[in-house]
Write a structure and sequence with these properties.
Layout lengths: L4 H35 L3 H35 L5 H5 L5 H8 L3 H21 L2 H8 L15 H35 L3 E3 L4 E3 L1 H28 L13 H27 L7 H30 L3 H19 L6 E4 L28 H9 L5 E2 L5 E6 L5 E8 L1 E2 L9 H7 L3 E2 L1 E5 L21 H6 L5 E2 L10 E4 L7 E5 L6 E4 L7 E2 L3 H11 L3 H4 L7 E4 L4 H8 L4 E2 L4 E5 L2 E12 L8 E2 H5 L16 E2 L1 E11 L5 E5 L6 H9 L4 E2 L6 H4 L6 H14 L4 H6 L4 E2 L16 E5 L8 E10 L7 E6 L9 E5 L9 H11 L1 H7 L5 E4 L3 E5 L2 E13 L6 E12 L2 E5 L2 H9 L8 H9 L5 H28 L5 H21 L3 H4 L31
Parallel strand pairs: 3-28, 22-23
Antiparallel strand pairs: 1-2, 4-7, 5-6, 6-9, 8-10, 11-15, 12-13, 14-15, 16-18, 17-18, 18-21, 19-20, 21-22, 24-26, 25-26, 26-27, 27-28, 29-31, 30-31, 31-32, 32-33
Helix pairs in contact: 1-2, 1-15, 2-5, 2-7, 6-7, 7-8, 8-9, 9-10, 26-27, 27-28
């Protein structure tokens, strides 16, 4: 039945329109990508990647279609003219042939088109492997097994495996499709007995199978080089069994496969199925016996009974390779006694710890939000950043910094215009010194408000505080700029006039969308017709997207892995994001492979930034690039970094010349804010937990292996403690240096095993890893033990702070070497609602200090240090003085009872005053702090007035009444620590 004329005309028109629409949408995606790359001056990256993908697509499509299509055409041409006369009778394939034969050409063309699309796309997706292969830079060192330069394993070996996989696929598909064609057109039939085939079909399929076996021979030979990545042995890398059993087995199997391939080729001229059958049986049998059974026997009967001796050489190879691959080979290990005597320490002469950072970046985020958010459509990240800035005396101080980013318009004003044209950017840089708080226990901001004010803003010369590019702006595009007289972008709220200050973007970031064509493209890209129709978009408007610093770096340098924690800094009067970027690989020979996501995950990690991928294992990492993203115009600048040559970066620099600038072009102000990257440090501490042991026998025993301790501020937590940025004075140095620090505990046991710090200040010692190893014959308390000691020792007074709606929050437990010992410092916060309807936020109320056998809890660090290292600053309670002067003639028990009752009364009054101050709207923090001081003094008097153990053995003459409302007589249980990463 034929279709009517009109539908027959409409069908090709409809198909054509669909094809044209698909091509236009494809063009839209490609061209808008080009516009974006051009806007950031990285068009060479776009063109380089696109041309490489097109080349590989064409090569893959042509090769696959040529191989598979050529074999199918050959099978068709070698079909018997009269199939029924060859084998006699009819075949079940005849009806399939009769159905397909009239349409064989369109079916063949469609099939080849789909195959070309599949093969071309697959090969184009491996453009990284191709560019690394053709631009490979040598490492200058060889592997110990084959003596090849390590660049062979990093760049050449993956490409060989890619080519083999492509050819295997082509040969297998060719054999299957050729067999189908031969069957359909009578080349062979399934008849009793066996299979009957024409000589042409037999020869054709024998050649294809022979080619498959020949490729298998090549694969066996190439597998010999892959043994350097083996995980068969005690550690990664070629083991005893791999070297002495698998390696010769692979060589023998390659030779056998080569012989079998020749036997299959012989089957072309020697009819019959015996020779191919023998070849196939020989291949399978040798693969099982030589490739499987023999190595298993060697492992079971030679290695396992003597594993330490057999694997010693290969463990040594793994240790050396791993330490180099992870950049830990130069780590300095120092034996540290850590037996400081607090009675011999003079803190007035060694002031290195007096300025230690107390503000916890993960806790005070809520405080920043409540005190500096200004409006609900601004916000700060959950984890703030630690940098350093000079104070009024020019001395660098650890500083908690953040930028005020935009979350979007209020829900009641959430429409397209507000979301994309009005609420376009955040505003402001907020900072506070890390070692001080104001009288209320809040951060003492030195950069704050909108517009930005404060001494730090003045000293840094901050001129541009608008944040168009930031961490929370990754998904939304905005359209900014235009006529400066028609200001419609919200700049910042103000109290007078209209209630807001407006602005118009005049930066060079983004893509111009003034032309109708560009507006059409982006309307299609985002599926938003308003981009095309809005009259608020004028010829000077620009569309800003890909606004997250990590996303921008990943796009301009897809060969780099960005650190999960970009941090803002004021550089040359502008706010910029500094991002550490890594070159990573899982192809370094003999190096231990680990999951990157597992290594960097801890309580301070943004899990969204390091979501674990199916293949996130690495065995090589370098911080080879320091990237800078301007927060106003989005400019991305990549600087080469590192004291030693990184062949991976050199390889990619050859592929994309000119995109990475030398480190010498960094401004001194930018260098002042560089720091050692967190993710790299986390990876290195995970590896150093085992690979600080360099002796193979000791490594095999594992007695000296360490663990990263769990976060002590989270009770019963199985999450690792994060490393901390702070200024540390390491043994042998003259002054504190801004560092990234961590601790280690033994594999089994809570005591301290080691302390590690890396210099994070640009200079000769930048990146130097120093490990203080604790003595193995003396127990040094670890973070968990110190936390328990703090909690048990000061539970009473901390419980009082946490009464009512208040909540105790433990800050970061800092560990520092000091005066031949170790000092632990932990801030304690009280978190309570600021007013009705507001979220709670923490306020610093105590500082806990532990050194040697002494601990202290005071309102300030200076007071706590004085109590630990000097005479107690606690004055004798006035009640005790009254006991001596006003109770003459009374017995000692009566005097103590009177003092106790007086102290309890004072405690009740102080507690009531504190609660009243909290209940005020807004809370009166000055009165609350004064009441807390009186409460602390009363608690000290209660402690002093209690009977001693000797007195407790004698019956009291008169039991003193204990008011049930007193906060000290019925102390609640030890407060449950609250996770520092939650609110």
């Amino acid at each position: 039945m034929r279709l009517p004329r009109r539908p027959r005309i409409l069908l090709p028109v409809l198909v054509t329109l669909i094809v044209l629409g698909t091509l236009f949408f494809l063009f839209t995606g490609i061209f808008t990508d080009y516009l974006w790359y051009d806007s950031v001056n990285y068009s060479s990256v776009f063109s380089g990647i696109l041309l490489t993908q097109i080349l590989l697509f064409l090569v893959g499509a042509v090769l696959m279609v040529g191989i598979v299509g050529g074999n199918m055409l050959l099978a068709y041409r070698k079909r018997p003219i009269f199939a029924s006369t060859v084998f006699g009778g009819t075949s079940g394939a005849d009806r399939y042939r009769m159905a397909l034969d009239p349409h064989r050409k369109p079916i063949f063309l469609i099939g080849m088109g789909m195959l070309a699309l599949f093969a071309g796309s697959s090969l184009a997706g491996n453009w990284r492997t191709w560019l690394e292969f053709v631009n490979a830079e040598p490492f200058g060192s060889t592997d110990p097994l084959h003596g090849l330069d390590k660049s062979f394993y990093m760049f050449t070996y993956p490409f060989i495996r890619l080519v083999l996989a492509f050819l295997f696929t082509a040969v297998v598909i060719s054999a299957v499709m050729s067999a189908i064609v031969h069957y359909l057109y009578g080349g062979f039939r399934f008849q009793s007995p066996g299979v009957h085939a024409t000589p042409a079909a037999r020869a054709h399929l024998s050649v294809l199978i022979g080619l498959f076996v020949l490729l298998k021979a090549i694969a066996y030979w190439v597998d010999r080089y892959g043994l350097v990545f083996s995980d068969r042995g005690f550690v990664h890398g070629a083991s005893y069994t791999d070297v002495n059993a698998v390696l010769p087995a692979k060589t023998i199997l390659a030779i056998i496969a080569l012989i079998c391939a020749a036997l299959f080729f012989i089957g072309v001229v020697r009819p019959g199925g015996m020779i191919p059958g023998v070849a196939f049986g020989l291949l399978v049998l040798s693969a099982v016996l030589i490739g499987g059974v023999y190595p298993a026997l060697v492992e079971q009967f030679q290695v396992k009974p003597n594993q330490q001796a057999r694997e010693r050489e290969y463990i040594a190879r793994n240790i050396e390779a791993t330490r180099h691959a992870y950049g830990i080979s130069e780590a300095e290990i120092i034996n540290y006694n850590a037996q400081g005597d607090p009675s011999k320490v003079d803190v007035s002469k060694d002031t290195s710890i007096s300025g230690v950072r107390l503000l916890d970046p993960s806790l005070v985020s809520k405080t920043y939000q409540q005190k500096q958010r200004i409006r609900g459509f601004y916000d700060f990240p959950d984890q703030l950043d630690v940098d350093r800035y000079p104070d009024e005396n020019g001395e660098l101080r650890d500083t908690i910094v953040a930028v005020r980013e935009l979350t979007g318009p209020p829900p009641e004003q959430d429409n397209w215009i507000n979301r994309h044209l009005v609420y376009t950017h955040g505003y402001g840089f907020v900072a506070a010194p890390g070692n001080e708080v104001d009288a209320e226990g809040l951060p003492n901001f030195n950069a704050q408000d909108m517009p930005v004010t404060g001494p730090l803003a003045e000293r840094t010369g901050l001129k541009q505080a608008r944040i168009y590019y930031g961490e929370s702006l990754s998904t939304e595009y905005v359209i900014a700029g235009g006529n400066p007289e028609d200001q419609q972008e919200l700049d910042y709220p103000e109290s007078g006039g209209t209630g807001q200050q407006n602005t118009t973007y005049d930066g060079k970031g983004g893509v111009p969308v003034g032309s109708l064509f560009n507006r059409l493209l982006y309307a299609l890209k985002y599926g938003e017709i308003n981009i095309l129709l809005s009259s608020d978009i004028d010829p000077e408007s620009r569309i800003l997207y890909e606004r997250n610093p990590r996303d921008r770096i990943a796009k301009v340098a897809p060969f780099l892995q960005a650190d999960a924690n970009p941090y803002p800094a004021i550089v040359d009067g502008r706010v910029v994001w500094i991002v550490d970027a890594y070159t990573i690989s899982n192809s370094y020979p003999y190096s231990q492979s680990r999951s990157f996501g597992d290594m960097v995950r801890d309580t301070a990690t943004d899990t969204r930034a390091i979501a674990q991928q199916p293949r996130d294992h690495i065995n090589y990492i370098r911080n080879s690039v320091k990237a800078v993203v301007d927060a106003y115009d989005g400019t991305v600048t990549l600087y080469k970094w590192g004291k030693e040559k990184d062949p991976i970066l050199e390889t990619w620099s050859k592929a994309f010349p000119g995109i990475i600038k030398p480190a010498e072009e960094m401004s001194p102000e930018l260098r002042a804010h560089l720091r050692y990257p967190e993710d790299l440090f986390k990876v290195q501490r995970e590896m150093l937990a085992r690979y600080h042991v360099e002796n193979p026998d000791a490594f095999y025993g594992g007695q000296d292996f360490w663990n990263v301790p769990n976060d002590p501020s989270l009770r019963d937590s199985e999450i690792k403690q994060p490393p901390y940025y702070l200024s540390v004075k390491m043994p042998g140095t003259d002054e504190p240096r801004f560092s990234l620090t961590t601790t280690f505990v033994p594999r089994q046991g809570p005591n301290l095993a080691a302390f590690m710090a890396v210099d994070s200040t640009d200079g000769p010692d930048y990146g130097k890893l120093r490990i203080l190893r604790m003595p193995s014959n003396t127990t040094i308390p670890g973070p968990g033990q110190v936390q328990n000691n703090f909690t048990n020792k000061f539970s009473g007074e901390l419980n009082v702070l946490g009464l009512g709606q208040a909540q105790i929050r433990y800050g970061n437990l800092l560990t520092l070497p000091f005066a031949d010992g170790l000092i632990y410092i932990e801030p304690v916060y009280v978190q309570t609602a600021a007013a009705s309807g507001q979220e709670p936020y923490p306020i610093l109320r105590r500082v806990l200090v532990s050194y040697g056998n002494k601990v202290s809890s005071k309102d300030t660090l200076e007071a706590a240090l004085q109590e630990v290292f000097g005479e107690s600053t606690d004055q004798q309670a006035p009640a005790e003085e009254r006991t001596e002067t006003d109770t003459e003639g009374q017995t000692e028990t009566e005097s103590r009872t009177s003092a106790l009752n007086s102290a309890i009364s004072d405690a009740e009054k102080a507690y009531a005053d504190a609660q009243a101050a909290l209940s005020a709207n807004p809370p009166d923090w000055a009165k609350y702090g004064e009441a807390q001081q009186r409460l602390k003094a009363a608690l000290d008097r209660i402690k002093a007035a209690r009977p001693s153990e000797a007195d407790a053995e004698q019956p009291a003459e008169s039991p003193s009444p204990t008011p049930t409302s007193s906060p000290t007589t019925s102390a609640p249980a030890t407060p449950e620590p609250t996770p520092t990463s939650s609110s």
